[in-house]
Amino acid sequence: MKKVVFLFDGQGAFKPGVGKDLYNRYPKAREIIDKSSKRLGYDLIRHLWGEEAANTNKLTSIAQPAISTVSLAYAEVLKDMGVVGEISLGHSLGEATAIAYCQIVSFVDGISMIQKRGELMEKGGKEGGMMAIVNIDTGVLEAECKKVSQDISEPVVVANINAPNQVVISGSKEGLRRIAQFVAQNKGRGIPLDVGGTWHSPYLKKASEDFSGFLDTIVFKDPATKFYSVVEQEVQNNGNKIKDSLKKQILSQVNWIQAIENLKNLRYHTFLEIGPSRILKDLVAKIDPNLKVESVALFTELDALVRSL
Fold this sequence. Notes:
Elements: E1 2-8, H1 20-25, H2 27-40, H3 45-48, H4 60-80, E2 83-90, H5 93-101, H6 107-124, E3 129-134, H7 138-152, E4 156-163, E5 166-171, H8 173-185, E6 189-193, H9 205-215, E7 226-229, E8 234-236, H10 239-249, E9 254-255, H11 256-265, E10 270-274, H12 279-287, E11 292-295, H13 302-308
Parallel strand pairs: 1-2, 1-10, 2-7, 4-9, 10-11
Antiparallel strand pairs: 3-5, 3-6, 4-5, 7-8
């Protein structure tokens, strides 16, 4: 078996057509996607590359299980080819996918959990929006977000620390407007993001509480393979502790830089993005160009990927 670090994609990885070649080429992927459709209660193919695919990104309740299912299908095909995640983690949604991959929850419970997460976030995150910020120090940006939040009594926070010079903020429309002004005055740039909601912000407090209650209905076991919690920034090996950290995840900041740096310090040097995009591959390359990182999405024939690892 070849063992690498598995990086599971977040919701931003979706685009119409994802999973189609995988489904048509590999029986194991077809099995996973069909099994997920059965659990979700609708034909997922319609939302991946069928007649509804153009609208999937607008529906967090659909996009999240769609991305996770395709990611898990990739992982199962790779397993048949002799490649497994020695340790697994994920970016935002990908953290829940990693939990399913590590068999902390069953496949059926994992898909149900991810579906519920998407439904609650879609319902609760419609106020405000998100914006990528470049060329502004993260500490300076966090301080300004705190100041603006206090000034207007509306939240705006640093939601994702993705890579050097790539931070995402989340919050009210007025909060984003004020931060954008501050960024422009300090020779930075703000780029509004077309996302489904104000992810990883206080606007999702009710969604987080409801998700926490839902998680209490699911059995979490100790991981079958190593799991890295981006919420806690540590390797976790206890199912109940992983459940507790996931309860906080919807509201928690995603510090991707710290996660990759911590794994590098634990002597992990080969990373593989699992999902239909190259977003995480590019972020890892920006964090440390010396790390070896690939993405399954860049290979039509996964045999070629396996040979390259």
